[in-house]
Amino acid sequence: MDSKPDHAPAHFIRHIIEADNASGKHGGRVVTRFPPEPNGYLHIGHAKSICLNFGIAEEYSGTCNLRFDDTNPDTEDEEYTNAIQADVRWLGFDWAERLFHASDYFDALYGYACELIRKGLAYVDSQSAEEIRATRGSLTEPGVASPWRDRSVADNLALFERMRAGDFPEGAHILRARIDMGSPNINLRDPALFRIRHAPHHRTGEKWKIYPMYDYAHCISDALEGITHSLCTLEFEDHRPLYDWVLDQLDVPCHPQQIEFARLELNYTITSKRKLLTLVRDGHVSGWDDPRLPTLKGMRRRGYPPAAIRAFCERVGVTKKQTVIDMAVLENCVREELDRSAPRALVVLDPLKVVIENFAADQVEWLEVQNHPKDPAFGTRRMPLTREIWIDRDDFMEDPPKKYHRLAPGAEVRLRFSYVIRCTEVIKDSDGRVVELRCQYDASTAGGQNPDGRKVKGIIHWASATHGATIEVRLIDRLFTVPDPAAQEDFLAHLNPDSEVIVREARAEPALQDSTADSFQFERVGYFCRDAVDSRADAPVFIRTVTLRDTWARINEGDGA
Ligand code: ATP
Ligand code: MG
What we know:
Structural class: alpha/beta
Number of strands: 27
CATH topology of the largest domain: Rossmann fold
Number of helices: 14
Number of domains: 2
Shape: elongated
Mean pLDDT: 94
CATH superfamily of the largest domain: HUPs
Radius of gyration: 31 Å
Strand content: 15-25%
Low-confidence stretches: 557-561
Strand order of the largest sheet: 12-25-26-27-23-24-13
CATH class of the largest domain: Alpha Beta
Bound molecules: adenosine-5'-triphosphate, magnesium ion
């Protein structure tokens, strides 16, 4: 039955599943899996695969397994296994009791390999890796058969058993499928199934001296778990004939259908595990959770709501055509979600002192203000107005152009939630830098009132200078200055030097400190979140999640890019 939500656009995978359900191909079942290799942290590209696999299963009342594809003992680690589980949960998905490992199937995979040998469909090749590579052929030339291709079943079984027992050094032999050295598809030219590797595995320890290859392990793992639709990225399209060949030869419980989709590529960032590792290891970022990274850990620390990432994955869709998605699409999803979910606060990043001369020095006027302009459910908070306040230096110009609606000598502006003030004097230091403004407030304009109908267009944010908090704010921006860092000869040469600008003494209203919310819109400034890592009770740190508008499009136009 088709249970996809009304807003979900059709895409080719949904079409395939609906057709399969209609024809009863898998008995109406939908079972998918997300199969990460535990050799790194998850990133935004993985999020697409997670949302697709778990999302599709949910939509069609099916299930999705989390399976660690842990067939390579060299690069895998328990640290990654734990982090991956935490990340998938954070994104909002649950595999219930269906947590599996390819290493759970090592015995079965060994048994199936023996079955292939007995059927004359696999053999132990004793050529070196170089010889095998040299005889594989090319796109225009067929491969050359190995001299060991016609070993007897008995010899193959005996050698394979000894490979497993650890009798041979690495590289001495390899188990290959016996398919077709003349196939136009290089993946079918007797691909490797098992290789010798004397390395302990983080789950099976010293038990195995041979490890299965991905193409062989993946299809059988899918079949053993009763997967119906095995969704993978486009680069595996040419591997599908091998996926099907292995399952066709063996007595496995079912034959899942491999379906390929285009991987997610996002501009201004990188998703290569190797390059991410370089950034972390060489200290270009502070760690895997650096808020500038496209890792799920980084995006979480940066304050991206999981719902925004899910909405993004839905919005970019599922296609067979490889495209590059603009970072602005992701940032827009984050803004849309935070606009709904983040309470507001007033914070001044670049403070300029304003003294309201006709406001008594010991007076504090507590204003009851709304936490969210569109949603009364967020309630209200209290903001102190005092004689001395901070405004943003950006909101004052000594010699403004026409139509400047903020503060200038002699001009009026409204303080958000409060009075209209007029600037009466500008005080400068000996270098001519403006250090203070003297203003007068108009008592008849309290709380947005405008009794004489005069035109005050500008509304600026502010914070009390005597009843406020000082916070550190980190202005996070894109990590790279070029749209396609991965395509550059040296991607490190294109790091954005301004990807993190630290403001040590931003001034905030006091309620910010007491709020239990994690994310805020600092009005007129951007969306920010409390940094769970570096904040201390007496020294809070806020990270910019995203600006209020897409400033990059404008910058690029300005560059003529
Ligand atoms: P590796 O080169 O180490 O295999 P990988 O990015 O494929 O890197 P895996 O842990 O194997 O990492 O990926 C787990 C799953 O996530 C796979 O099914 C993979 O196809 C999918 N995936 C990885 N990157 C993307 C991406 N950019 N877009 C969509 N899916 C992705
Ligand atoms: Mg992979």
